[in-house]
Amino acid sequence: MVRYSKLPFRELVRRYNCDIVYTPMILADVFFASNYSRECEFSTNILDDPVVIQFAASNGVDLANAAEMAAPYVSGIDINCGCPQKWAIQEKIGSHLMSDPETVRDMIRMTKARVNVPCSIKIRIHKNLRETEEFVKRALSVGVDFITVHGRTRNQKSTVPVNLQGMKLVKEVSTVPVLANGDVFSVEDANAIVEATGVDGTMAARGILENPALFAGYNTTPWECIENYVDLALSYGTNAFIFHHHLMYMFERTMSNAERRTFNSLTTVPSILDYLEENYNLDIVGLRARRAAQKLES
């Protein structure tokens, strides 16, 4: 995901049965060159484990440089070959790489030569699945450690159902673990995809933005989860845009249209907190006091 899976959100989803978490997609060349980028794009702590840092790059040198810098602080390096946004394709990163398997193979080889943590790829399928099979085999030839496959082509919209056969093919030709991504909005969705494709696990993006408690079996975001996010975001520090948009996603299924119009118009953290206190009885001070008391009792 671009922007959204920073430290507060990663810590949140760990509380709800999420086993492995990823950073947002980070531009490898900017990360390597800019201390400001590193401070803004990636922060971690001892609770943030296992965490995979996901880079976007157009060549092996940029990727390996950034990976070597990040490796001491992460559990794995992931190469984004799936972002379908137009700007990414124009920069020859993200899903553009699905048409350039040799560059991806070089990226994996060069990165694995310089880091001692797993190196994975997140890919999409091709319209012609033979191309997908060949793409995967080239990645396997240089030792990719695991693969996440999104079951759509780069040109397909999210309203198109994922191609289960395409994801199954990636699993069948792979000698490493394979995760499936796309259309995971519940535990039932995840289980159905595993059953249909034989993959080793599933990844959620849109689904977990809407409901960070998805993998704990909740069908909508419980209020406790929203409270936890607000607490974490305030504790770690989160800019108003990210803070607001995470909450907009979490309330998507429960707010009325009128409520959403009002809530979506808010622009500052204080105004958002005021709204939640007035309309949802948000009490962060009380929440923290209760947690402190529980720790003392234990």
How many strand elements?
Answer: 7
Query: What is the mean pLDDT?
Result: 96
Task: Estimate the helix proportion, in percent.
Answer: 40-55%
Low-confidence stretches: none
Biggest beta-sheet profile: 7 strands, parallel
User: How is the largest sheet built, in terms of strand order?
Assistant: 1-2-3-4-5-6-7
| SSE order, one letter for each helix or strand | HEHHEHEHHEHEHEHEHHHHHH
Note the total helix count. 15
| Rg of Cα set | 20 Å
Terminal Cα separation, in Å? 37 Å
SSE-based structural type: alpha/beta
Shape field? globular
% residues in beta strands: 5-15%
Give a quick set of tags describing it:
298 residues; alpha/beta; 7-stranded parallel sheet; 15 helices
Describe the structure.
The protein has 15 helices and 7 strands. The chain is α/β, with parallel strands linked by helices. A 7-stranded parallel β-sheet has the order 1-2-3-4-5-6-7. The two termini are 37 Å apart.
Structure summarized in a few sentences:
The chain is of the alpha/beta class. The protein has helices spanning 7-14, 28-33, 35-41, 60-70, 86-90, 101-112, 129-141, 164-173, 187-197, 206-210, 223-236, 240-251, 257-264, 269-280, 284-297; strands spanning 21-27, 51-56, 76-80, 119-124, 146-150, 178-181, 201-203. The protein is built from 15 helices and seven strands.
